[in-house]
Amino acid sequence: MSPAPQTLLAEEQAKNLAEKPEADDINISLLSEAFGHFIGRNLKSPGVTFDIDAVIKGLKNGAAGQPAPMNDQEYEMAMAKLQEKAFAALSEQNLTAAKEFLEKNAKEPGVVEIEPGKLQYQIIKPGSGEEVKPHSTPLIHYSGKYQDGTVFGSSEEVGGPITIPLDQTIPGFSKGLLGMKEGEKRKLFIHPDLGYGTMGNLPPNALLIFEIEVVKANSSDLNLQSMASDDEEKSGEKASHEGDEGNDKDDDEGSDKDDDDKDED
């Protein structure tokens, strides 16, 4: 008796699957190399240079279950000391670079020094509106960069202009905005002494370069107007509500009076 057609079809499909390599087979060699590359990328740290051959040796010994050359406490202490040393070296390097940049930049056409060697600006586009005054809260577009041109923040990231209370930002930024007119765009060059110094999440003693455009010299005026409008709207709603309550009360009194008249009749 010949096999049923369904059986022949099943046998043929099984044969094809056995002969055909799986499309989603994992290349463990390639994946291992990619994993090593990931580790290598994360070994890069400012001011720290690891011995790659020693790192590879440590990977092999660790994978083989051999004892570590340092215990966890020794490793953490040594790493903390290395990072502290690297931080100090990078701070000094960035401070020197900032000083040299500002000295050279002061000689560029159109550059004005607000504080010699500490704060400079260059007008990109003049403005003609109201000026930014001390203690105000201007509405601005901005872009912040490091000396190498790397952008670390901008108003575009949050979808539009932002308000900056001058009393709540770094000195170089607040002083650099003073006197800017609405519509004006200028570039600020801020020494780390008037920036974040060695504090914050930015590289220590980094020179900061901002491009700023003033949309409104003091947006707190807009906020006050908005609050006043809201209060007026709420007052109007309250008055309207009270008026409706008064009308409802009159209607109820009138209805009660009609009922009394009907009782007397």
Would you kindly provide a written description of the structure presented here, covering whatever features stand out?
By secondary structure, the chain is an alpha+beta fold. 48% of the residues lie in helices and 15% in strands. The protein has 6 helices and 7 strands. It has helices at residues 5-19, 28-41, 52-63, 72-105, 171-177, 219-264; strands at 111-115, 119-125, 139-145, 151-154, 162-163, 185-190, 208-216. Strands 1, 2, 3, 4, 5, 6 and 7 form a 7-stranded antiparallel sheet that branches. A hairpin with a 3-residue loop joins strand 1 (111-115) and strand 2. It is elongated. The model is unreliable at 223-235 (pLDDT under 50).
Brief write-up:
Helix content is 48%, strand content 15%. The protein has 265 residues and is an alpha+beta fold.
Mind summarizing the main beta sheet? 7 strands, antiparallel
User: Helical segment tally?
Assistant: 6
**Span of the ends, CA to CA:** 111 Å
The helix content is 40-55%
Low-confidence stretches: 223-235
Mean pLDDT over the full residue set: 82
Q: What's the overall geometry?
A: elongated
Radius of gyration: 36 Å
Counting helices, strands and paired strands, the structural category is alpha+beta
What string, H for helix and E for strand, traces the elements in order?
Answer: HHHHEEEEEHEEH
